[in-house]
Amino acid sequence: MKTSVTHCNQNNAPAEQTVTLTVGTAGHIDHGKTALVTLLTGCDCDTMPEEKARGMTIDLGFASCRLPDNRRIGIVDVPGHERFIHNMVAGAAGIDIVLLVIAADDGIMPQTLEHFHIVRLLGIASGMVALTKIDLVAPERIDEMTRQIRELVAGSFLEGCPIVPVSPKTGLGFDAFYEAFVAAIDKTVRRDSSGAFRMHVESSFVMPGIGTIVSGIPRCGTVRVGDTLDLLPGAGEKKVRGLQVYGADAAEGKAGECVALRLSDLSHADVKRGMVLATAGYFTPTAIVDAHLQLMPNLVRPLKPRSGIRFHVGTAEVTGYMALPELTPPAPGSEVYVQFQLDKPVVATPGDFFVVRSLSPVQTLGGGNVISQETVKMRRSRGNWVQTVKEREKAYRDPGSALNYALQKGGAVPQHIEDLAKTAGLSLESTREQIQALVQQGQASALPGERYVTAAALTGVGDEFLVMLGRRHDAAPLSMGFAKKDLFRDLKSERLLIDQAIEQLLKSGRITSNAAGFQIPERMPKLSPQQAGLANKIRDIYHKSGFASPRRDELPQLLGAPANMLDPVFDFLAQTGELMALSDKVVLSREHLAESKTKLMEHLTRHGYVETGVFKDILKTTRKYAIPLLEYWDSQGLTRRVGNNRYLKE
Fold first, then answer.
1. What ranges in 220-315 are assigned the alpha helix state H?
2. Can you give the pTM of this predicted structure?
3. What is the SS3 assignment for 172?
4. CATH annotation of 548-648
5. How many CB atoms within 10 Å of residue 147?
6. Rounded distance, CA 44 to CA 33, Å?
């Protein structure tokens, strides 16, 4: 790893407006990649003594290039030698536009092909071709090479791209090259900086008197001085103390820019290429990765069901195994779902591109995109693994579906907005925006405290509640309602979800609520003719008995009917308020309860207080009835007890 990163900023001028994209070179060794970058930027990206001595790029170099309209863009120069492909992949992982460099004298060489396939596998979708060393060949050779390059890039993202002859040595053709270079940048979609911040570490170095500096190209998000970041895997939280973009102090660094960060409490030995700096709490390293793999078309040896590999994602390179879902080897150039079982954890999130290479002999096997992080190894004999992975791949195709998938994973457990953001890999702001869209589309339901579930989960809890309520109606058809606490005993879902489901059922009119509890409107109790007759007899008894009424358990003897016939009718009258059970022994009619209140108020208004014995005499009853009545009016907030006296409650 180089001990410094080249960020040329001519004349130390303040950084211009940056373009949130990064250009990367690709191509065979000694085809002029570094010389072309020097011509563009004025920076020599070969800074290591070994590079100077051997005349070839070994590690990554970074420079910035001025564009028209006071803009600046970053360029990554990668090594072309096949022994340094791992460094090339690390650099290519952060670029948005490829500058494929092919020398007119040598033509298309082995590393030209490998680099071309690698940038395709890494999902790069924009670029151009520079045909270099034109000062060494005849015009006919330039025409022939242009034709060969057209054939090479046919059907790829470079089909139809500019192929511009240029000599980095003499500058011949540079104006046309620069014009095509700027046009390629202008037509490329800028990197999105709205998500959670994540930067794969490309380099770290020590600046005397300042400390350890970590640099890279953020894949997503924005970082600012004062932010707390996770250094993954396993290095803990670090605070951003200083920040530069293209070598100049900046207030913030965005996805697609070359960013250097000064972090708190960080030793140079603690950070290495392949680590990740990310918004705290958002990303978790994993050693098991499910992925969609595009195999190279030139594979000679068939893949084994479990092969030793080198897995490249971001700037990380980790050894491990690649497990195939079938024992039959896939054909070269085909696509297959695989699982990588790695020796060390990496940060690999859905949608990340990767390259996989064999251990020995070292060759690029293919590449593709990460589908999901896993905790369990694939077992070919257990279920339809491929179908499950396909469903996950579909879920992470865009922010809305990723968030919906995160909700689905939560099932019937309410998910907090911050947990949803982390599961879906979105920023908190984007998650709030996306969740509101899902709510409006009827796919998600909002709960108090910024918690959410799928609409289906909430509907399911509501349906379960209706079933439970229906069973209560079946058991007690004359009940005017059923208390929430009794119904909750039969439900397994979280209280927050049940409350929301009940609220929806009430709004829709599928249930109603009264003093007795909840009820299904269609199940409103109706007395049969026989029950109506018994109800009239019970009303008559309590109307005539006044403040000397019978106990409930005395009714069977008084009416000559069994308790199991009278109990539902009695409960119906109690729930409708026609009867009031003050205790196990005292039941009064609604009229007599109201009469007791009227007489109590008259006495209190006149005398200010009342004794139990006096109240008993007022009602012409006994203490058996007077005491429960006074206690009832205490409980209703009408009176308050002081010793043996009652007063109006203020």
1. none
2. 0.69
3. coil
4. 1.10.10.10
5. 11
6. 11
What's the whole-number mean pLDDT along residues 165-181? 93
63 pLDDT more than 60: yes
3-state secondary structure of 168: coil
Helix/strand/coil for 549: coil
CA 364 – CA 587 distance, rounded (Å): 88
CATH 2.40.30.10, applies to 198-279: yes
Residue pair 216/209 in contact (Cβ under 8 Å)? The answer is no
Q: Report how far residue 103's alpha carbon sits from residue 109's, in angstroms, rounded to the nearest whole number.
A: 9
In DSSP terms, 238 is beta-bridged to: 229
User: What is d(CA 351, CA 355) in angstroms, rounded to the nearest whole number?
Assistant: 13
* DSSP state at residue 482: B
Can you point out the beta strands (E) in 53-110? Answer: 61-67, 71-77, 97-103
Fold of 414-526: Arc Repressor Mutant, subunit A (1.10.10)
What's the pLDDT at 89? 63
Domain at 286-389, CATH homologous superfamily: Translation factors (2.40.30.10)
In tens, the pLDDT along 299-308 reads 888 899 999 9
d(CA 577, CA 355): 76
The residue type of 639 is: T
Domain boundaries, the chain: 10-186, 198-279, 286-389, 414-526, 548-648
Distance between CA atoms of 303 and 551, rounded to whole angstroms? 87
The residue-averaged pLDDT of 492-496 equals 83
